[in-house]
């Protein structure tokens, strides 16, 4: 049977969603509409990014604090080392804790100019590893870190990059979230190396449904994600056809997830870009249903499961 139709009911699936903090009132409304649409999928957490150089410090804080106060979802706040002293970073973390945020995604961060060289702040945390260690002295946070199936572009070697991940885990992170990838085999090969290195925490695949192929191309170049040739062919000619683009994007992301699910993967992290439609479609194809709506497998036969099957 096709991947999409294979029975998957008994295995628990866990999903998490990533958002960026809104810049304008209109974007805030859009984000909250998106959050409310995704909330019934009962994500294990929702994370909010931290702009380059701390440029979104207040907006990230405001967003995670409101998620903590006003929704049923658990927020995770991203935090970076860029252009800040240790005391400044610690103060941001403390404010998260005071707002009820218990989970931090600890990152080195990128320089404010895309593609610029990273220079650690003289009085700051130099790398994500240092931030993970520093956070432990601030409060008892749950800490997630980043992982790179296709190797971080500034890493001296794949082996050193993996060693860096292991050190972040050994320092107290309990989960890694992967950079997005399109070549599912690159994640599989990476996971073989992760396990061989003795890393036993979840390394959750980061899934990016392609909202706009041209934007993804530009961004992938900067962050080291390979865009396979077949993707160029898949999206060719869809520049002015957003409807078809959307359907292709949802199908592609669902196929990625379903293929990983067949391998035994049961946690997925979605880069939502503050849009609910693609992520909802993919989650639906994975078999996730909003909390209030029973799945076919939960229905008794006389309630219609037979007609669905
Ligand atoms: P690190 O783990 O510190 O590694 C960075 C690089 O330095 C790697 O190449 C590593 O191998 C190398 N390295 C580590 N230690 C040393 C050392 N001692 N000497 C020399 N090299 C070393 N960016 C943002 O600005 N805001 C966000 O909110 C954000 N969210 C993200 C979420 C996820 C899930 C991911 C995957 C990335 C995110 N990023 C974000 C991007 C991230 O900040 C960049 O990829 C950044 O370049 C690396 O961050 P890191 O935490 O992986 O760094």
From TrEMBL:
<dbReference type="GO" id="GO:0035999">
    <property type="term" value="P:tetrahydrofolate interconversion"/>
</dbReference>
<dbReference type="GO" id="GO:0071949">
    <property type="term" value="F:FAD binding"/>
</dbReference>
<keyword id="KW-0560">Oxidoreductase</keyword>
<keyword id="KW-0520">NAD</keyword>
<dbReference type="InterPro" id="IPR003171">
    <property type="entry name" value="Mehydrof_redctse-like"/>
</dbReference>
<dbReference type="GO" id="GO:0106312">
    <property type="term" value="F:methylenetetrahydrofolate reductase (NADH) activity"/>
</dbReference>
<dbReference type="InterPro" id="IPR004620">
    <property type="entry name" value="MTHF_reductase_bac"/>
</dbReference>
<keyword id="KW-0028">Amino-acid biosynthesis</keyword>
<dbReference type="GO" id="GO:0009086">
    <property type="term" value="P:methionine biosynthetic process"/>
</dbReference>
<comment type="pathway">
    <text>Amino-acid biosynthesis; L-methionine biosynthesis via de novo pathway.</text>
</comment>
<comment type="similarity">
    <text>Belongs to the methylenetetrahydrofolate reductase family.</text>
</comment>
<keyword id="KW-0486">Methionine biosynthesis</keyword>
<dbReference type="Pfam" id="PF02219">
    <property type="entry name" value="MTHFR"/>
</dbReference>
<keyword id="KW-0274">FAD</keyword>
<dbReference type="InterPro" id="IPR029041">
    <property type="entry name" value="FAD-linked_oxidoreductase-like"/>
</dbReference>
<protein>
    <recommendedName>
        <fullName>Methylenetetrahydrofolate reductase</fullName>
        <ecNumber>1.5.1.54</ecNumber>
    </recommendedName>
</protein>
<comment type="pathway">
    <text>One-carbon metabolism; tetrahydrofolate interconversion.</text>
</comment>
<keyword id="KW-0285">Flavoprotein</keyword>
<dbReference type="GO" id="GO:0005829">
    <property type="term" value="C:cytosol"/>
</dbReference>
């Amino acid at each position: 049977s096709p991947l999409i139709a294979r029975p998957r009911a008994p295995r628990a699936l866990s999903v998490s969603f990533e958002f960026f903090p809104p810049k304008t009132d209109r974007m805030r409304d859009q984000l909250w509409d998106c959050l409310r649409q995704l909330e019934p999928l009962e994500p294990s957490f929702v994370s909010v990014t931290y702009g380059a150089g701390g440029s979104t410090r207040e907006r990230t804080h405001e967003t995670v604090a409101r998620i903590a106060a006003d929704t049923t979802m658990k927020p995770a706040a991203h935090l970076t080392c860029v252009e800040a002293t240790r005391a400044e970073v610690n103060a941001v973390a403390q404010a998260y804790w005071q707002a009820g945020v218990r989970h931090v995604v600890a990152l080195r961060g990128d320089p404010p100019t895309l593609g610029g060289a990273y220079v650690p702040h003289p009085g700051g945390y130099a790398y994500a590893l240092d931030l993970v260690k520093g956070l432990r002295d601030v409060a008892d946070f749950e800490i997630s870190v980043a992982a790179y199936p296709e190797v971080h572009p500034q890493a001296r070697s794949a082996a050193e990059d993996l060693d860096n991940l292991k050190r972040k885990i050994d320092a107290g992170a309990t989960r890694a979230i992967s950079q997005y990838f399109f070549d599912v085999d690159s994640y599989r090969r990476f996971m073989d190396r992760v396990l061989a290195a003795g890393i036993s925490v979840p390394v959750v695949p980061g899934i990016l449904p392609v909202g706009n192929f041209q934007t993804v191309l530009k961004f992938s170049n900067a962050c080291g994600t390979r865009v396979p040739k077949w993707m160029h062919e898949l999206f060719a000619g869809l520049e002015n056809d957003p409807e078809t683009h959307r359907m292709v994007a949802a199908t592609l992301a669902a196929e990625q997830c379903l293929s990983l699910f067949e391998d035994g993967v049961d946690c997925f992290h979605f880069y939502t870009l503050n849009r609910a439609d693609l992520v909802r479609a993919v989650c639906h194809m994975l078999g996730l249903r909003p909390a209030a709506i029973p799945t076919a497998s939960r229905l008794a036969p006389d309630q219609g499961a037979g007609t669905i099957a």
